[in-house]
Amino acid sequence: MINPFFKNTGPHNINFLLKTIKLTNNNLPDDKITDINDLNSSEKNEITFLHSKKYTDLAKKTKASYCLTSENFQSFLPNNCKPIITDKVLLHTAQITKIFYPDSITDDYDNTVKDINETVFKDKVKFGKNVLIGENVKIGANSLIGHNSIIEKNVKIGDNCSIGSNVIIRNSLIKNNVHILDGCVIGKKGFGFFPDKISNFRYPQIGIVIIEDNVEIGCGSTIDRGSLSNTIIGKNTYLDNQIHIAHNVKIGENCIIAGQVGFAGSSTLGNNVMIGGQAGISGHLKIGSNVQIGGGSGVIKSIPDNSKVMGYPAKDLKNFIRENK
């Protein structure tokens, strides 16, 4: 389980799961499924999913017992993983996730919060006015919290951290020496749903946000928690103001990202990446280490290590300059 904060209702019988989502598969044994997880993290007696050729290498190594996938991708699964064929892989994955984690769909306000003066932190933390703290919160030594901030339930903050004013945090593990500036929202659900003519089906967001040591997050930035994996910000990474990081994004160490950059879900960055202001990174991409991306660029394909790119679509910097003389 990737999120210790949501209650898992399992185990569930595999045939019960498929019947509930109205997916017919014949001749399956009455196996108990303990959880749903991504290809990389899944274990025996869990169910996973495969919907894109980008993940076929991971599929070959998955330990899951079952996998929701299409006919085109079932051959990539190992013998230990039985395919469940569907033409709506992501929708059925979301529906099964909701069965396991029914509380992960909505993000209503936290009604467990108390004024910090009514908690154990009143003598342990330096804080401003009107600070609220939820249940299952831990705050390390020498940390401080600004005015009007809300540390909602299920948050761990390390030592020597600075949380600014008007900040909201939930479902997050924040390590040591982290600075989160004013107006940030961290750990809320991501923008995941499936459009339908009658109603839109929300994708459960059962991951968390992990912020490693010595990170700074600029004013007005938003970092969504993961859906079926965690959103991670690596050590010594600095984010400028008004940056959006969607669910499942993983940013490496020592990265510098300028203002108004946006990341779509499930993209990964290596170490020592530099991104100029107002660039956009599409989803499910892999950006290598030591990459530099010029301001205003639109990245729609993965980028190998040690590259410099710019433009839309982002291309090698030398080619961009040559074409725009």
Output the number of helix runs.
Answer: 4
Tell me the major beta sheet. Answer: 11 strands, mixed
User: For the CA atoms, what is the radius of gyration?
Assistant: 21 Å
Return the CATH topology of the largest domain.
UDP N-Acetylglucosamine Acyltransferase, domain 1
CATH homologous superfamily identity of the largest domain: Hexapeptide repeat proteins
Number of strands: 37
Tell me the structural class: mainly beta
In the CATH scheme, the class of the largest domain would be Mainly Beta
Distance between the termini: 53 Å
Helix content range:
under 10%
- The proportion of residues in beta strands is 25-35%
How much is the average pLDDT? 94
CATH architecture classification of the largest domain? 3 Solenoid
Query: In total, how many domains does the architecture comprise?
Result: 2
Task: Enumerate the strands of the largest sheet in spatial order, edge to edge or round the barrel.
Answer: 8-11-14-17-22-25-28-31-34-36-37
Shape: globular
Instruction: List the uncertain runs.
Output: none
